[in-house]
Amino acid sequence: MFGEFIRLWRKKTLTAETLELAEKMLSLTREMFFEAVWSLRESDTGQLRIDIYQHDKTINKLERDVRKKVLTHLLITEKSEIVSGLTLANVVTDIERIGDYTKNIADLATLHKALLSGGEFEATITGIEQKVKEFFDLTVKAFPESDADLARQVLNGYKDVSRDSAILTNTLVKGECQCSVSDAVTLALYSRFLKRVAAHLFNVCTSIVNPYHRIGFKEKTKDLI
């Protein structure tokens, strides 16, 4: 349903601009995320090669702009487009939250400074990172075209990320590791932030495959009919 409205909205000036802003938000958060992960996991200084905090301000402004444009459009159009407007407003809220969690990862890199090694959990944390990066790439492609097949790859993969992140975080909090206190705390927070980023990408993708009332929830088989 939302996919049909995306195609319709692209034919109208105001709504086409609104969709472009949402897509720009998604692209910026992806850039932020990849940079924050690089800074924490590959840099020995915690440096950032782009201004993530300025990016975050830009995303916040874009979110406000999208909301204004959605409201303006709904005030001058027919009631049948209300659901699509509400859906898009939900989507940009999730994208803005991704920016916030990415900023949290950047803060970790600034505080930890030295390259963060996963130690005995390196394979697990690397696996989670790679899945979230994949989710970003899939979502950036799926959202503009409302591609349900790509969106479902995120939905199907999220369960593993959520499980692995929870197990890792619980293990670290219980002190069942050989890490230093600094590394253990940083890894636990990082794992949690990765899970939250993945969760909001999951939410964005549910808007593609689910009716409005099920945004943020897994797809039901009967919803496919």
Verbal overview:
- This protein has 225 residues and is mainly α.
- The chain has a single domain, classed as Methane Monooxygenase Hydroxylase, Chain G, domain 1 (Up-down Bundle), CATH 1.20.58.
- 76% of the residues lie in helices and 0% in strands.
- The longest helix is centred in the middle third of the chain and has 31 residues.
- The chain is globular, with a radius of gyration of 19 Å.
- The two termini are 12 Å apart.
- The model has no long low-confidence stretch (mean pLDDT 90).
Quick recap of the structure?
The chain is mainly α and 225 residues long. Helix content is 76%, strand content 0%. The protein has one domain (2-224): Phosphate transport system protein phou homolog 2, domain 2 (Methane Monooxygenase Hydroxylase, Chain G, domain 1, Up-down Bundle).
Please give a handful of descriptors for the protein shown:
0% strand, Methane Monooxygenase Hydroxylase, Chain G, domain 1, globular, mainly alpha, 225 residues
